[in-house]
């Protein structure tokens, strides 16, 4: 609840259902990035998905429905841009799993992309929405890469305990909704050290 100075108006944010909230994670990130752009903090954008439309149905003159489409090339990650002179690249995922994040939810080529960004001096990470815990974590790509390499030897998921240990909890806010750049500031300072 937000109390205004004159105490006459209040705003109570309604608790969203878990299903509805999870579907809105990308929307939350898009709002966050719009906030960062509007306030000249960072220039982070959602990458378009490269698709080839094959079949379209025109049920009415004013509407078209895509019936069949294919990815032209495998997409890399969800978001990229620049912040404080640093290239930022990240993937956003969510899980309803109660105990771990299945590594099958992120493709090997996406992890390789995040590793290459890191190797070239950029900042890359995974933003992970744990729906059952109602928590959002930032996991630096160095840990994600390590877990991916471990998966080659049999372990196919990252436990929530490991995410809590190696990730950074992001407290959801109002403006911005998902203030992940607070943690990116810390990562930038760690790079300098």
Features of this protein?
single chain; 193 residues; alpha+beta; two-stranded antiparallel sheet
Write a short abstract of this structure.
By secondary structure, this protein is an alpha+beta fold. The chain contains six helices and twelve strands.
Characterization of this structure:
- By secondary structure, the chain is an alpha+beta fold.
- It has a single domain, classed as Trna Endonuclease, Chain: A, domain 1 (3-Layer(aba) Sandwich), CATH 3.40.1350.
- It has helices spanning 18-23, 25-38, 108-119, 141-151, 160-166, 181-192, and strands spanning 2-3, 10-11, 43-46, 51-60, 63-71, 79-83, 86-95, 100-102, 123-130, 135-140, 157-159, 168-170.
- A six-stranded mixed sheet has the order 3-6-7-9-10-12. It has a two-stranded antiparallel ribbon with strand order 1-2. Strands 4-5 form a two-stranded antiparallel ribbon.
- Strand 1 (2-3) and strand 2 form a beta hairpin.
- The protein is globular and about 60 Å long.
- The model is unreliable at 1-22 (pLDDT under 50).
Walk me through the topology:
Layout: E1 2-3, E2 10-11, H1 18-23, H2 25-38, E3 43-46, E4 51-60, E5 63-71, E6 79-83, E7 86-95, E8 100-102, H3 108-119, E9 123-130, E10 135-140, H4 141-151, E11 157-159, H5 160-166, E12 168-170, H6 181-192
Parallel strand pairs: 7-9
Antiparallel strand pairs: 1-2, 3-6, 4-5, 6-7, 8-11, 9-10, 10-12
